[in-house]
Structure prediction request, 437 residues.
Amino acid sequence: MSVVADHAAAASHARRAASTVVPARVALLGLGRVGRAVADIVRHSPHCLGRPVRITGALVRNTDARAGDAVCPVVDDASVLLRDHEAPDAVIEVLGGLEPARSLVLSALARGIPVVTANKSLLAEHGDELIETARRSRTAFRCEASVLAGVPFLGTFATRPLAASIDTVTGILNGTSNFILSRMSDGVAFTSALKEAQQLGLAEPDPSKDLDGIDAAEKLAVLIRQFAGLAIRACDIPSTPLHQITLRDLEHSRELGGTVKAVAFAQWTGDGRVCCFSGPAFVPNSDPLAHLTGVLNGVRLQRTGQEPLCFTGPGAGPEVTARAILDDLAEILQAPDIITLKSAVSPAFIGQPSTLGWYLRFASNHLPGAVDIADLLAAHGIWIQRWGPRDTRCETGEQRVLTFPCRAEDLDAALEALCAASSCTANAFPALGSINE
Ligand SMILES: NC(=O)c1ccc[n+]([C@@H]2O[C@H](COP(=O)([O-])OP(=O)(O)OC[C@H]3O[C@@H](n4cnc5c(N)ncnc54)[C@H](OP(=O)(O)O)[C@@H]3O)[C@@H](O)[C@H]2O)c1
Prediction:
């Protein structure tokens, strides 16, 4: 028999075997972009998980708007899907937001029904409570799609404690802001780039969570809990809005040997201190994250002094997210009682990074000379690593520089002194790594 025929025979055997197995009954909480993609995959490839799956129904807000929608039955009362005498084998939560997602996931886990979620807001805010409930009831709870939705990496570390013993996470965790900055690098203005993202369905009608760094901060909070064992609320992570970056920043950052990206960063020590931020940062060309464009996302996991591990790929999109959710479901159906998520062991104490340099932008009608700027910064222990060109194309002159790593408190004091002495304005954004080219 040929290899092709062999393969076809094996596939047909698998299908026959699967058809004799009782389908796994799955309740879908939410039938929006992701929920619908999950239902579509199951409908078109019911055997893709190795065991047939039947979606028993989906929870939505408005059932009337779904009249004639044949993907699966819809209900607006979750108790219909979760009632005891016909409880599902697993629940997929793709409602988004905190409530009713939290109550429904808690209720399912407490009753021993495994749950898959893609909801980073829920995990960031209530992760510990949910993971503890899963642990107590020995029930699987998976969330691979919550961070870097199309890149399976979280689960890999759950059973590999040595690989997981890192102390720094650096990532581009939000596709919308990466798309906008990529377009700005091509010379497209912020508002036009945002409009383009919305037309392509990449940005929400209200994109503020993406653009203000909140979405990335929620994902960072999930990563900090999983890798550092520290409880941190996303709203406590210092976040800077993307609109503080101008087209000229993108232009000048090229001359400084890098680019500007929306970065999520966290570095922690054994005593519970974590330095973190979410927002625009200078990224040198020597850093692979500088080359992730469009909606690509990436994360670098590192233990100080060791080589980093890098994961890149699509961070969102209904189809990729649905695939990650269904892979979680496949794992759960094989091992419904294995807990892979870690709850936090202690609260985090948030500090400012001191291992990073800074990208500084000065603007004034009467910019001080380079020597004056350098002297004043040096008096506070801030050393300039590279100068950008002085921009005098409009009335307000601008000067950009990169500093060597320094303490954020020293930088604050230096900028306050400089602004007071020269009536210029100063903006500071973190700068990753070193400049090699
Ligand atoms: N979209 C992506 O690419 C992506 C990527 C990674 C992770 N995620 C996560 O996946 C989750 C779902 O995202 P999505 O884009 O699919 O959201 P969505 O399109 O807004 O869909 C949400 C669904 O949940 C239902 N729903 C919301 N609140 C409800 C309530 N109180 N009661 C009953 N039903 C309710 C909605 O019902 P109606 O249809 O009646 O409004 C809708 O069917 C979110 O947690 C998101 O962060 C999404």
The chain has 14 helices and 18 strands. The chain has a mean pLDDT of 92.
